[in-house]
């Protein structure tokens, strides 16, 4: 069983007790209990469908419809079966189910309480849709706020994350999806109280479920992409232990450059892939050359210089990589035409390759290798600026300098990995002379 700090357990217990106190007026609540049972069954069914589709998240429209239709204690019960029956992979499973149930019930109770206080339930009963919108927006904001506060609290106590960092951005990140679910929940509630009844309200779930399934498929495909890239990188790291972690750091630096250049999120992600996979062709290079101490012979260097072409052959059939494939092939080209494999010059070199070339050289100079010590970041940046215009694209160098001045650079130290020999004094030469 995974250890959960005592203070986190106490926090879960306190939230559960607070929920029980919110449910105390339940015996006096006048509500059609068949509505509570039907909404609870719908919520549980959606949770089971989410688990089957392997979708990370909770389907909130039914819960929010309950908040718009029912008194607060009854609305809170709608969340209980789905939370308790949802599958949990990590242990302790019972505690995690209890926490999920308490968190959702408290959030739904608060949303229902606020919604009723601002007159939202009367507007729903009257099917007065435009005027029902404002109370629903207020309730959705409260629901999202309570969820975020409780999430931040458990993160701070269970993961020992600083409080401000645990809550930072939680509300804003969850607001958009919860708002969409809230609109669907309001449509369900208005139709539920209309002459068309609950059957019409259930039709609202059909397009939501279809869009949810499509979104789940997207995330599944994205996870498969990540797994493919991770497997390739791990294979390179095992083969070339001196540069373990290098690929991830080049991906990080490439992403920083791309962001600084104002590229869109999709392209930034592709350039991160390019940085991560730029050395995948080393799988085709003899291991003895990759692990050789000391300088390479001209013949050995020619063999190693084949790795961009090997890498391109490996990844050219992976369609989701897009322009990352060109970066894998051309990241050792130089603006003056002295690079390899094809000696391209200036604008002939793809932009993605020019980004990765700067990121690769920067990490190579700031990482300890078997044949030289790491240079300080400032010294590496000075060397990149010195070679800008001849070896590197000046725009990419400037973008990296600006990004590092804002965010800094905190990579893992490759030499700290077990089994890596202690480095010898630095060998002077061109940036990334043995990358």
Automatic annotation (TrEMBL):
- Report the EC number(s), separated by commas if there are several: 3.1.4.-
For this UniProt record, give its keywords in alphabetical order, as a comma-separated list: Hydrolase, Membrane, Transmembrane, Transmembrane helix
Instruction: Give the superkingdom in one word.
Output: Bacteria
- Residue ranges annotated as transmembrane are 62-86, 98-116, 136-158, 170-192, 198-216
Domain (HD-GYP) spans: 221-416
Q: Where is this region: Disordered?
A: 412-435
Any one GO molecular function term:
hydrolase activity
> What name has this protein been given in UniProt?
HD-GYP domain-containing protein
Q: Which organism is it from?
A: Streptomyces doebereineriae
